[in-house]
Amino acid sequence: MSLETMRPNPTWDAASYEDAVDAIAAHRDELTYKIWGGDWCKDCRALLPDFGAALEAAEVPDERIEEYALDQDKQGPGVEEYDIELIPTIVVENDEGEEITRFVEEEDVPPAVWLADEIEAA
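Request: output the structure for the sequence above.
Response:
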């Protein structure tokens, strides 16, 4: 099941986030984005459409984006395996399945910016 909240925000301005888009694009064929959220979740509705737009602007292939819809009890695929407590949570993995970084709802910058900085630092 996919997340409606991952549909790219049509008003998101990629030019305003050029560094983040470039950093994500530079690794678009090396990293996989696993996104846990819920269309019922206000934080997901606030954060994920812009992240979806950033992935689209960076031309990240669809097969490198995995979406996991959780119920209102935050239960669903991979919750225990990845220790998901807050949503949205975005886990970035390399091709060996190693976690590179993770964005959790409580960060104080948008997911694309936070993850781009972490990816570049790794």
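The first strand starts at residue 31 and ends at 37.
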